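Project outcomes to date are best conveyed with an example. Our students and postdoctoral researchers have been running inverse folding experiments weekly, and each run begins with a structure described purely in tokens. The record below, which covers 281 residues, was selected by the lab manager from last quarter's runs and is presented without edits.
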């Protein structure tokens, strides 16, 4: 049993065909991750299913995932056809949920502007200033990269699942993963001043540390650190280090300046000649 994607030449003809149901989800709000559509007459009836760009559909019947479709187009369902999805559909068991025949639309577009911020001070081993403490804030984007794993991860809350529901669930996990990613950045020798310009490195480490692709079917697509804020002790430490670094050569140069006394010809290091007492202006 599986989906059959209709050829382009046959799409227009379906508008004149007789069918029991025509199922579609013309728009999915950016806050909606899952939208449920009931199949009133079941999959034995003649149905047409419309899928738009950035949508994936899962066909559910009698506790099983029958098929998954993720390409834009119009589909029919055929009991004699093999599933078009090559994902392991048998890994999802919905028997305990007693679900009616349904089609679930998943929002697979990139979901942007998810705010984050670390209130607690985070230790950062800076290549220039050693151990300093900082806070940060910014935003990140993500998308559903594996519909079956994602569906399986929210299996008990699948009816009209919202982005805010997911953010509340993953927020602590994301912050912990970001802190570990920043630790890896410090080992790469990235100074705290360059973190805001190191998005690609942070994204790479975040996806490795969180491993959401395998655990949640999600992928981090963008991270923007809008600001990195040092605590007062770290600011004082850095300022003292900068002052010491830039003033020390000046002090050494003053000490090493050697003059000649115009009266007796002796070498003078200072304002007065130690031999004759002549004051050098």
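After processing, the design step wrote out the following sequence:
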């Amino acid at each position: 049993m599986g989906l059959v994607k209709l050829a382009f030449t046959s799409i227009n003809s379906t508008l004149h065909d007789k069918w029991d149901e025509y199922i579609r989800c013309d728009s999915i709000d950016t806050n909606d991750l899952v939208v449920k559509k009931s199949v009133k007459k079941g999959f034995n009836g003649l149905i047409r299913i419309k899928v738009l760009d950035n949508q994936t559909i899962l066909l559910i019947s009698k506790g099983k995932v029958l098929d998954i479709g993720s390409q834009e187009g119009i589909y029919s369902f055929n009991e004699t056809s093999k599933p078009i999805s090559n994902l392991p559909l048998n890994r999802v068991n919905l028997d305990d949920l007693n679900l009616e025949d349904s089609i679930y639309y998943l929002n697979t577009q990139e979901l942007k502007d998810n705010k984050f911020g670390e209130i607690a001070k985070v230790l950062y081993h800076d290549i220039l200033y050693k151990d300093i403490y900082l806070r940060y804030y910014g935003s990140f984007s993500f998308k559903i990269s594996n519909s079956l794993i994602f569906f399986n991860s929210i299996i008990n809350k699948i009816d009209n699942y919202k982005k805010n529901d997911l953010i509340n669930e993953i927020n602590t996990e994301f912050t912990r993963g970001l802190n570990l990613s920043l630790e890896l950045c410090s080992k790469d020798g990235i100074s705290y001043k360059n973190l805001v310009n190191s998005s690609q490195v942070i994204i790479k480490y975040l996806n490795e540390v969180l491993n959401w692709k395998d655990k949640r079917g999600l992928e981090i697509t963008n991270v923007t650190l809008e600001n990195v804020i040092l605590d007062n002790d770290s600011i004082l430490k850095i300022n003292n280090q900068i002052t010491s670094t830039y003033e020390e050569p000046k002090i050494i140069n003053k000490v090493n300046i050697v003059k000649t006394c115009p009266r007796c010809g002796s070498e003078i290091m200072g304002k007065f000649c130690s031999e004759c007492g002549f004051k050098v202006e």
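Helices lie at 8-14, 147-153, 163-187, 199-210, 212-215, 232-255. The chain has two domains: 2-107, 111-230. The training component of this project remains on track.
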